[in-house]
Amino acid sequence: MASDIPKDAFLLLIGAMKSGTSTLYSYLVQHPQICGAKVKEPFYFMDDPMERLPHDPSISCYEDLWDFDPADHRYALEGSTGYTKYPAQLGLPKRIFDHGLRPKFIYIVRDPCERIISEYNYNQSRHGAQFDLGRCSYLIERSNYGLQLAKFLEYFPQEDFLVLDFEDLKKDPAQMIQRSCEFLGLSNEGIQIEKKKLNPTQLRSNTHKKMKGSSALALMRKLPGPVKQLGKAVLHQVDPVPEKYVMSESERAFVHYVLKDDMQKFADDWGMDVKKWGF
Question: How many Å apart are CA 68 and CA 76, to the nearest integer?
Answer without folding.
Answer: 7
